[in-house]
Amino acid sequence: MTHVGVAVVGGGAAGVAALRTLVDAGQDALLLEAKDRLGGRAHTVWTHGGPLDLGAGWLHSAEHNPWVAIAEAEGFTVDRTLPRWYEQWRDLGFSPDDKAAAIAAYAAFDRRMREVSPASDRAGDALEPGCAWNGYLDAISGYINGAGSSQVSIADYLAYDDAATATDWRVAEGYGALVARHAVGGRVALGTPVTRIGASAKVLRIDTPRGALTADAAIVTTSTNVLAAGAIGFDPRFDDVLHAAACLPLGLADKLFLAVDGAAELEADAHLLGNPRSPVTATYTLCPFGRPVIEAMFGGEGARAMEAEGLGGAAAFAIDELCALLGTGWRRRLRLVAGSAWGKDPHILGGYSHALPGRATMRQVLATPVDARIRFAGEACSPTEFSTAHGAYKTGVDAAHALIG
Questions:
Q1: Residue-wise pLDDT tens for the chain (405 aa)?
Q2: Helix/strand/coil (H, E, C) string of the chain?
Q3: Which CATH number do you get for residue 199?
Q4: Domain count, the chain
């Protein structure tokens, strides 16, 4: 039976970071990834003349995002063009007065979360009943948390908000491509899902459909939804950890890309919000990097609705929204070229984590080892930088350092 020093379970940002840290420290490490590629929820595809990020796309909080330095060291291009999420190109469908009112409603919502802080710890309980912009606020929660405000802990919502900065950059060649590149030089077994980690003996036994192996230690970076679903078996000592994972479910955040005929009429990197009064809507980036595509992102309730429709139905919805803003003549000029549905990926089962109301402390439970030989890592383990690839990276590095000693 094969033996390794450290088995890293999962090849997303956390797993890749752990592998790289272990290899650079001269450790014997093997990364086991269920999918046929690395990157996890950072996934770059090449189509329509360039790279498109179907998952993580922004180097959030770039001032303290380690992927910035990694990208530059690897020869990737860091584009410092800031997002324009709070603009509405040409005021289409969202007048300046309405936009100001919506932003004011968000500021009031934020104040109520901080100053009133409902005992329920439920962000939705800080919404003003009957406010005309509650749909807008739930759409924003969907993009930030992957879930509507009624499903999200206030403490969790604010922890992320207070730690984040407004500096968000991009990787021109693709964030997913960067994450995958960072694993070069490490041993990787793709198409190898882990089904059980046994910790009763002196060495860990790690079962996979391709056979078992043993390891001195393991770093588990599998998503919380996969952990909570019981896809990996653990002994009963880990029940609290698996319960913590269930309290930190993945919301949904999906993207699709539409090719544009005659894209020169659109302003590069301009932004549109489809319907500012509904949570079932998309946020659109026109011609990112000047490329002839429109990027649509759905979050929370909108993403759930679109996954139910399938990519074709989601594309039809996005084209309807865009034509309502740009004009019906655009319908024949837009076509689907790529998209994601993370909730349907059996090895991930969602977008990024949010704490359920009253459960923000579960992030610490998930990150605290039950057995010194087994560490959990991933964005859900970060107390303030969850839902990001850089939060995942930092937890992977920390887990590796803890094992190296």
A1: 899 999 999 999 999 999 999 999 999 999 999 999 999 999 999 987 799 999 999 999 999 999 999 999 999 999 999 999 999 999 999 999 999 999 999 999 999 999 998 999 999 999 999 999 999 999 999 999 999 999 999 999 999 999 999 999 999 999 999 999 999 999 999 999 999 999 988 999 999 999 999 999 999 999 999 999 999 999 999 999 999 999 999 999 999 999 999 999 999 999 999 999 999 999 999 999 999 999 999 999 999 999 999 999 999 999 999 999 999 999 999 999 999 999 999 999 999 999 999 999 999 999 999 999 999 999 999 999 999 999 999 999 999 999 997
A2: CEEEEEEEECCCHHHHHHHHHHHHCCCCEEEECCCCCCCCCCCEEEECCEEEECCCCEECCHHHCHHHHHHHHCCCCEECCCCCCCCCHHHCCCCHHHHHHHHHHHHHHHHHHHHHCCCCCEHHHHCCCCCCCHHHHHHHHHHHHCCCHHHCEHHHHHHHHHHCCCCCEEECCCHHHHHHHCCCCCEEECCCCCCEEECCCCCEEEEECCEEEEEEEEEECCCHHHHHCCCCECCHHHHHHHHHHHCCCECCEEEEEEEECCHHHCCCCEEEECCCCCCCCEEEEECHHHCCEEEEEEECHHHHHHHHHHHHHHHHHHHHHHHHHHCHHHHHHEEEEEECCHHHCCCCCCCCECCCCCCCCHHHHHHCCCCCCEEECCHHHCCCCCCCHHHHHHHHHHHHHHHHC
A3: 3.50.50.60
A4: 2
Let me know if residue 52 belongs to a domain.
no
Q: Are 234 and 245 in contact (CB under 8 A)?
A: no
Largest Cα–Cα separation, the chain: 68
**Residues spanned by the domain of 234:** 2-43+57-74+172-249+354-404
Give dist(CA 93, CA 268) in Å, integer: 19
* pTM, rounded to two decimals: 0.97
- 274 and 339 both lie in a single domain: yes
